């Protein structure tokens, strides 16, 4: 089996004095959609931020394409081809949709063109001159995802992309993730909406108290539903 695109081993992380991750280990293979599941406070978002190098302190190993990144700065990690779409989306209110879309620098060749992004998210083309924060929640999420697709990053870290969105928009986000996978992107997803995650993920890791406590493939989902109910309360 080929080496994983992303290999996380015994990852620990802190916010100030608060020790949040306690030896997290998992793999993400190229072309997969992998979901981190767990209740609020389990450490899922901190795991994504640790991969990007935007927590206070990290220990352990995070290897991307075989290259160790645990001591690298966040801008260096981004230039390797990793992009983070935060739960709060990070849309700049002082910029219109086009300016928000064009803001991140290109980090590697192979990013989507603006026209390709409009094919995924036609709403954005119609709202190009609108102030970024005047968009609906769903449109802001489309803009936040579209913005990182331009950069050339091939590993996308998506934090709660369906949070607070209407069902019809959630379906559109799901179709987008499926298309991105078909186009060769690899996605690590944090998602509270398990029913949504089950429509897009290849594999799952369950987190609790800053550790990975279980893992299974989508094909094993039915056999693990009782455990998932206990883990997540779904």
Report on the architecture of this protein:
The chain has one domain: P-loop containing nucleotide triphosphate hydrolases (Rossmann fold, 3-Layer(aba) Sandwich). A six-stranded mixed beta sheet has the order 6-7-8-3-9-10, with helices on both faces. A four-stranded antiparallel beta sheet has the order 2-1-4-5, with helices on one face. Strand 4 and strand 5 form a beta hairpin. The chain contains nine helices and ten strands. By secondary structure, it is α/β, with parallel strands linked by helices.
Mean pLDDT: 93
Shape label: globular
**H-E string:** EEEHEEHEHHHHEHEHEEH
Strands in their spatial order, largest beta sheet: 6-7-8-3-9-10
Q: Which architecture does the CATH hierarchy give at level 2?
A: 3-Layer(aba) Sandwich
Number of helical runs? Answer: 9
Structural class: alpha/beta
CATH superfamily: P-loop containing nucleotide triphosphate hydrolases
Name of the CATH class: Alpha Beta
CATH topology: Rossmann fold
**What is the CA-CA span between the terminal residues?**
33 Å
How many strand units?
10
Total individual domains: 1
Profile the largest sheet: 6 strands, mixed
Radius of gyration: 17 Å
Strand content: 25-35%
Instruction: Note poorly predicted spans.
Output: none
Question: What are its keywords?
Answer:
single chain; 234 residues; four-stranded antiparallel beta sheet; alpha/beta
Show the helix and strand layout.
Blueprint: E1 6-15, E2 18-28, E3 33-37, H1 44-52, E4 57-64, E5 67-68, H2 74-80, E6 82-85, H3 97-102, H4 114-120, H5 122-126, H6 137-149, E7 155-159, H7 167-182, E8 186-190, H8 194-200, E9 203-208, E10 211-217, H9 225-232
Parallel strand pairs: 3-8, 3-9, 6-7, 7-8
Antiparallel strand pairs: 1-2, 1-4, 4-5, 9-10
């Amino acid at each position: 089996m080929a080496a994983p695109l992303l290999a996380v081993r015994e990852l620990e992380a802190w916010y100030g004095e608060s020790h949040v991750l306690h030896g997290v280990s998992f793999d993400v293979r190229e072309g997969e959609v992998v979901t981190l599941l767990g209740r609020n406070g389990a450490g899922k978002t901190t795991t994504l931020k640790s991969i990007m190098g935007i927590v206070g302190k990290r220990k352990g190993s995070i290897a991307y394409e075989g290259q160790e990144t645990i001591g690298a700065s966040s801008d260096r990690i981004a230039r390797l081809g990793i992009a983070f779409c935060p739960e709060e989306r990070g849309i700049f209110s002082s910029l219109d949709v086009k300016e928000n879309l064009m803001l991140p620098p290109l980090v590697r060749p192979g990013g989507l063109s603006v026209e390709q992004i409009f094919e995924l998210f036609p709403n954005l083309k119609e709202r190009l001159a609108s102030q970024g924060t005047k968009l609906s929640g769903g449109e802001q999420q489309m803009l936040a995802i579209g913005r990182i697709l331009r950069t050339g990053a091939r590993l996308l870290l998506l934090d709660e992309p369906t949070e607070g969105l209407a069902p019809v928009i959630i379906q559109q986000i799901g179709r987008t993730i499926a298309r991105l996978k078909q186009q060769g992107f690899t996605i690590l997803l944090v998602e509270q909406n398990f029913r949504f995650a089950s429509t897009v993920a290849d594999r799952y890791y369950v987190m609790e108290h800053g550790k990975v406590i279980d893992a299974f493939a989508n094909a094993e989902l039915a056999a693990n539903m009782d455990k998932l109910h206990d883990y997540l309360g779904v």
